[in-house]
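Here is one chain, start to finish.
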Amino acid sequence: MAVPTRSQISPGTEVNIVLKQHQRSGTLTNGIVSRLLTKSANHPHGIKVQLEDGQVGRVKEILS
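Its structure:
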């Protein structure tokens, strides 16, 4: 499955992300995007975002 590009993600989007400490296990965390942190259009490991609760990780799936 391909990771979503920056153009597919915007603040308010519900996503599953992988936190830095969970990169090896691949554990997903659900949340709402607060802001996008990656400036490029795409990234091989996923666009880095900050969720509304303050957690930061890379987007693996878009849910909404």
